[in-house]
Amino acid sequence: MNSVHDMGGMHGMGPIVEERNEPVFHDEWEGRIFAMNLAMGAWRKWNIDASRHAREMIPPAEYLRMTYYERWVSGLVELIVKSGLATRDEIESATPAAGSAKAVPAANPNQALARIATGLPAKRNVDVPARFKVGQRVRTHNMHPVGHTRLPRYARGRSGPSTVTMVFLFSRTPMLISSVSARSTFIRYALLGASCGAPRRGRKILCT
Amino acid sequence: MSPDLPHRQQHEHDHQAVPSDPALRVKALESLLVEKGLVDRAALDALVDAYEHKIGPRNGARVVARAWSDPAYKQRLLTNADAAIAEMGYGGFQGEHVVVVENSTKVHNLVVCTLCSCYPWPVLGLPPVWYKSAPYRSRAVLDPRGVLREFGLELPEDVEVRVWDSTAEVRYLVLPERPAGTEGMNEEALAALVTRDAMVGVGKVSLSKVVSAA
After folding, report:
1. pTM of this structure
2. Which end of chain B is less enclosed by CB atoms within 10 A, N or C?
3. Residue B117 is among the residues annotated as catalytic for this protein
4. Which of A203, B22, B66 is nearest to B30 (CA)?
């Protein structure tokens, strides 16, 4: 979607401020919401594309006003409500509805650490022919999807040699993606058309 | 750039515009999720501890130091970074597919995530605030040399600058140039020189470690 999160190429955002000896989290709540995002992901109600989209849906003025982890709060609340893991009433009142507690236990510390050590690879080793060879000149689509896209505005309608060809899982729009370079700036994602490969778990497999 | 500007002060300023106190909101959310059996408080503690104390740029520094010391390893790192990084015992969440890009006297690589904050967590930890900020995300792809100047790095005109815009799937790690004068150093000593900024591409590695502010 064309919102303010797609910042590449914008002017007027001010100077870059680097902080010496920056802590990983600036307040305790930042660490808590970070960890809750990771832990809640284990219920497999959403994937990384959906969690990114939940943050992209924050209205632009709000998005710019919020700190980074405030966006994580907003995004997680939306995902929890949309997936039905809790209702908005429960979140606003901080009180679970009667009888709504999960029967399946949540991940314990060892399980949570094992999950991050393993990771969630998006790469799929499926046998689909790549439509483009590495080095072949490609042009990105000039497109404006309302959902999540990996193709930022500054890289749309641009041409350059394809640099990477891999197959990844992608949750929403079927598309072919490839990294391209234009002049000395390497720009990601030529969007190249139809999906390839069979649907898996109800999602499309995409060639990137 | 104003490296001494207190970040927390900025945060507090930002917070004034937010309707509810995020600390209270997050506390309420956590207690709800715990009561509903959706999260285990001890698991949250373990995750915070892992990213505060175990998963950080020292991991990436060891990868870089090994690549500088072992040409065969460097080759593996540049051709299949995931396997080479796994050899060092690193890998996992938000770093499942890493591409390593090598700096040289002719090419300087810079990593950004214009859409959000993608970053190779297993080797660099969580990104600093500036990496996730609007100024860096907006200008790294438009004026990379200007951005590098803000970090105190002035590159000669004949050095090609390549900007890598990260995605959720593919995240980049810069293999910085090994500085002159480090020929006799072992991997541990070399790793101590490697900064996070150099592995993102906003700094260079130097013997004095003063090229970049961080």
Report:
1. 0.85
2. N
3. yes
4. B22
